[in-house]
């Protein structure tokens, strides 16, 4: 039986299409539910409610909730992108902490730290939510 060889372009195209196929509505909805349950179990119900209802986090909470609703309304890719924006707004304060931790990784650590600090946009010394 002859084998088929794919070019780099074809294999890249199939990889991208395969990743897009993972944006299944039910999987994303289940992941969102498990994410919220896990966050609640880690920091507690009251702190979770306080975290999502803070005044400076309302924009992120609205984007995250809108993303979940769009996923449930069968717009998984759009909902995921809006949800990703909301998560960045909600948990962007942790980027400095993650950057400091990854700065100790040999060879690539300083580069990762620099990228995360740039993405955080000067949010140094911000009160963390927990």
TrEMBL record:
Q: What is its main location?
A: Golgi
Q: Membrane topology type, per the record? A: Multi-pass membrane protein
Determine the domain of life of the protein's source. Answer: Eukaryota
Q: Where in the cell is it found?
A: Golgi apparatus membrane
Its cellular-component GO annotations read: COPII-coated ER to Golgi transport vesicle; cytosol; endoplasmic reticulum; Golgi cis cisterna; Golgi membrane
**Which biological process terms from the Gene Ontology are attached to this UniProt entry?**
endoplasmic reticulum to Golgi vesicle-mediated transport; retrograde transport, endosome to Golgi
Any stretches that span the bilayer, and where are they? 12-45
The record's annotation in InterPro entries points to: Got1, Vesicle_transpt_Got1/SFT2
* Keywords, in A-Z order: Golgi apparatus, Membrane, Transmembrane, Transmembrane helix
Homology family: Belongs to the GOT1 family.
Q: Which protein, by its recorded name, is this? A: Got1-like family protein
């Amino acid at each position: 039986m002859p084998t088929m060889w794919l070019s780099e372009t074809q294999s890249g195209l199939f990889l991208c299409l395969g990743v897009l196929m993972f944006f299944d509505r039910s999987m994303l909805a289940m992941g969102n539910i498990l994410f919220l349950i896990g966050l609640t179990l880690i920091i507690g119900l009251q702190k979770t409610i306080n975290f999502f209802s803070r005044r400076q986090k309302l924009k992120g909470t609205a984007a995250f909730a809108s993303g979940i609703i769009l996923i449930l309304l069968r717009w998984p890719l759009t909902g995921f992108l809006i949800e990703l924006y909301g998560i960045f707004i909600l948990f962007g304060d942790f980027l400095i902490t993650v950057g400091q931790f990854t700065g100790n990784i040999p060879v690539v650590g300083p580069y990762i730290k620099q990228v995360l600090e740039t993405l955080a946009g000067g949010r140094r010394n911000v009160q963390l939510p927990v």
